[in-house]
Amino acid sequence: NAGVTQTPKFQVLKTGQSMTLQCAQDMNHNSMYWYRQDPGMGLRLIYYSASEGTTDKGEVPNGYNVSRLNKREFSLRLESAAPSQTSVYFCASSEARGPGAKNIQYFGAGTRLSVL
Amino acid sequence: AQSVTQLGSHVSVSEGALVLLRCNYSSSVPPYLFWYVQYPNQGLQLLLKYTTGATLVKGINGFEAEFKKSETSFHLTKPSAHMSDAAEYFCAVKRVAGGGNKLTFGTGTQLKVEL
Description:
- By secondary structure, chain A is mostly beta strands.
- In chain A, 0% of the residues lie in helices and 50% in strands.
- Chain A has strands at residues 4-7, 10-13, 19-25, 31-38, 42-49, 56-57, 64-68, 74-78, 87-94, 106-107, 111-115.
- In chain A, the strands form 2 sheets. In chain A, strands 2, 4, 5, 6, 9, 10 and 11 form a 7-stranded mixed β-sheet that branches. In chain A, strands 1-3-8-7 form a 4-stranded antiparallel β-sheet, with no helix packed on it.
- By secondary structure, chain B is an all-beta fold.
- In chain B, 0% of the residues lie in helices and 50% in strands.
- Chain B is globular and about 45 Å long.
- In chain B, the strands form 3 sheets. In chain B, strands 2, 5, 6, 10, 11 and 12 form a 6-stranded mixed β-sheet that branches. A 4-stranded antiparallel β-sheet of chain B has the order 3-9-8-7, with no helix packed on it.
- The N and C termini of chain B lie far apart (41 Å).
- Chain B has strands at residues 3-5, 10-14, 19-21, 24-26, 32-38, 44-50, 56-58, 64-68, 73-78, 87-94, 104-105, 109-114.
């Protein structure tokens, strides 16, 4: 019953450091997403992967890269962290394209990142 | 492009009072609509959704929402607030066709429930 698992839960970086946020889902979902959440701005899509082997930019992709390692895993990499990337990062997954229930996105618990 | 507007970043109600959280969308065609809830230090979880059919949809924890095409609205209501309802609520939209199954979220409404 794990659903979507994100690691780490908390991280503090210095400006210029790099790190990778990990996400894995055990629901056999095709699509996976990375969002950032900032106060007063809701959730904004960074990158998404509609299916294994594909990735596409979302609303705020600059400064990030992603890898869809396999169907289960979708990682987000910050190559050179900046203070503007201080945020809470959420990974989500959904079953597939198509109507209704299959569009529900399931979220992980988040990674709280501070860049000093 | 589609967008979502949530009126009121903070709403405060008394326990037992009506909860009304407002959501309006902008889209060239009626989209799929969702309400998610986020409890402190947790991820988002789905409250309810509208795709097709009945415009009044019921969700978990006694919440419901009505899709009104003429008003481009999808307001969330609950007849009687409980302390456990204190959380942040997000309205989201998805294009019916295309768009890669992406959601566009509103900026959220923080609900406070007072004794």
